[in-house]
Amino acid sequence: MSPDAAGSTVWPILHYDDTGSALRFLVEVLGFEQVVAAPDEHGGVGHAELRWPGGGALVFGSTRHTDSVHGRMKAGSSAVYVATHDVDAVHQRVRDTAGHIIEAPHETRFGSGVRAYVCTVMDPEGNLWTFGTYRGPFAS
Q1: Three-class DSSP category at 133
Q2: Rounded to the nearest 5°, which phi and psi values hold at 57?
Q3: pTM above 0.85?
């Protein structure tokens, strides 16, 4: 695990109907690293923690678990931006699995006027994932 991933202080939380498929897609296709995958009483993944190789973390769970504040979340209603130096590799992995590509890799300008190279894909439950070269205003 990279030092950046271990020190991440922002952890997006997503919920999926089919947590097993979500875990496989996030790890095998998008390229996250599995840190924790705790089973639930339904035979799925009740709680998972993933790391992005370039830094950052993600938590996800099942839409079946409605006993917390996050239990109100519905599958397929989120969007996540992930900074990476290799947008093309993520895009190719999604293509290789016949995944849903919303936007192929291209140059764009964000609202701030900053240029970035990005692609956007949709996971099997409808969440949007944008992978891009923009690392924030303080990145070197």
Answers
A1: coil
A2: -145, 160
A3: no
CB 77 within 8 A of CB 128: no
Homologous superfamily in CATH for domain 3-132: 2,3-Dihydroxybiphenyl 1,2-Dioxygenase, domain 1 (3.10.180.10)
Say if residues 17 and 75 touch (Cβ distance below 8 Å): yes
Give the separation between CA 100 and CA 88, rounded to whole angstroms.
15
**pLDDT tens profile 78-89:** 889 999 999 999
Exposure class string for 72-110: b at 16+ Cβ within 10 A, else e: ebebbebebebbbeebeebbeebeeeebeeeeebeeeee
Place of tokens 């996250």: 32
Q: Is residue 11 a contact partner of residue 57, using CB atoms and an 8 Å limit?
A: yes
Q: What is the pLDDT of residues 100-129, one digit of tens each?
A: 999 999 999 887 788 999 999 999 999 999
Q: Which residues of the chain have pLDDT under 50?
A: 1-5
- DSSP 8-class letter at 72: G
